Amino acid sequence: MSLPISRSLKADTSGLTRRGLLAAGAGTVFVSAFPFPAGAAPEDMKAAIRKAFGKGELRDGRVSINTPPIAENGYSVPITVRVESPMSEGDHVREIGLFSPRNPVAHIAHYYLGPRAGRAEIATRIRMAGTQDVMAVAKMNDGTLWSAARETVVTLAACVVL
Amino acid sequence: MRRLGALALLALSACGPDMAKGETGFETPQSGSAFLKPDTRALQSDDFANPGFLWVDRGEALFARASEGGPACASCHDGGEHTLEGVAARYPAIDDQTGELFNLERRINACRSRHQGEPPLEHESEALLSLTAYVAHLSRGVAIDVETGGAARPYYEAGREYFFTRRGQFNLSCHHCHDRNWGQSLRGDTISQGHPNGFPAYRLEWESFGSLHRRLRDCDTGVRAAPYPAGSDTYVALELYLAARANGLAMESPGVRR
Amino acid sequence: MASIRLSVPDTAAKGEVIEIKALIRHPMESGFRRDSRGETIPRDIITRFECEYDGQTVFAADFHPSVSANPFLTFYTTATVSGTLTFRWTDQTGRTWSESAEIRVT
Predict the structure, then answer these.
(1) What is the ipTM of this complex?
(2) Do residues A30 and A52 touch, judged by C-beta distance below 8 A?
(3) pTM of the entire predicted model
């Protein structure tokens, strides 16, 4: 933890008593710094992907994800997913799924496209329960599954509700 | 626990002699948006994706709609003599009829009762937030320019008093954080100079839109002090001090904040 | 009052890929949060979004609780004919809202 104010390093030990006192009164209140409460356990992401896309093999490639490397907080992280595809009648993306390894519901969202999209790209904003590698899976019209993952560091929001 | 540690240390650091009252700790005011990460700043400046515009849009619709008891806001304030462009940058201001200090919310409610025969809207209600968002947005880019003399003086003094008074379990004043420690980071957050120019604003942590007073409640709660109700006299006076402290800073509402 | 902001070009050339943006006003209450008394705040989310154009659903999305409040979406479609794009969104209880935009294709 970086100490916010250097002068504080010179504080004498009376600070410890004080800190204990403050901590004691702190159990009660406050909105979480993250969009989901700490108690909400993450779901199994692999199972969620299987549920959405079936048993096919997940290949690396064709999918790219863009998120800020460091997000200000986990409430609203911008994300763009792009899939390499001509988006023709014969060769196009049918579905894109977004998945989280750390959120209480692993399946974030699912998008249905067709050749008329012209461009296999979506952008949205999502909640993140902390730093994680969000995954995107694309299903082509030939049934193949392609995927990518990208890490986003979610910095803690301010102390308590500040 | 660790986050409490950070605040406790901040509390200790604030044990030095208080700075002379009236000193703001900065030469020119810097907007809170300057202390955001680029993505959040980009969201604020995107006039489509900035979620605050959902409230501005609704405010615009309410503004144009005739009320049951009287004419629509727009029928009196559609340009001309009573245009509301730039008006929000002069608020809070003294109401000539009563001699009292009105912030924008109070002014809008006064128009409802005086000119529309409608009851006041609750502070923080969706309707009042939306109307305030719309009116504030009409001053985007306009420099804050509030009057602190004359009848406004006692309110200004009361607001300043509040700003410099230590409170809560952490025994910190607004001044300790926003004058003496702006630019410092507090557990991943960066303390700004605490200006009101982005409000009402969309706060990511609220996942919603809120007034300046809601933000002040968060700051008071953060030092474990009992917050005042949104719309209270105490916060309206504090709002005047904050605006005066930010005089010259461009209005940004609808701001986007962490 | 549910509402939406839409960005759809007024005009486009036939065959041009156009960008569509939507910002929907909705709390997307996840169902995981608790209020000050410790009671779970019930889930209240939009679950489905669709865009219909030229007789076809050209884009659809399923939303789950990890979609941010006031959902934002960008997607693309090919301009085919002049006409109406209809946007429809539905919450978990089946309540549906819709809004439309006109496009002129040259």
Answers:
(1) 0.95
(2) no
(3) 0.90
- Does any CB of chain C come closer than 8 Å to the CB of residue A134? no
CA distance B128 to B170: 33
Q: Using one digit for the tens of pLDDT, what is the confidence trace for C30-45?
A: 998 888 888 889 999 9
Range of the domain at C17: 3-32+43-105
Interface test with A, best of C29, C64, C74 (most A CBs within 10 A): C64
Give the tens place of pLDDT for each residue, C72-106. 999 999 999 999 999 999 999 999 999 999 999 99
Query: Domain limits at B63?
Result: 53-137
Of B92, B107, B137, which one is at a domain's C-terminal end? B137
Classify each residue of B34-47 as buried b or exposed e, where b means 16 or more C-beta atoms within 10 Å of its C-beta: ebbeebbbebbeee
Tell me the average pLDDT across A4-21.
28
Q: Helix, strand, coil: what percent of chain B each, to 5?
A: 45, 10, 45
Cα–Cα dist A17/A14, whole Å: 6
d(CA A157, CA A162): 8
Size of interface A-C (CB pairs under 8 A): 99
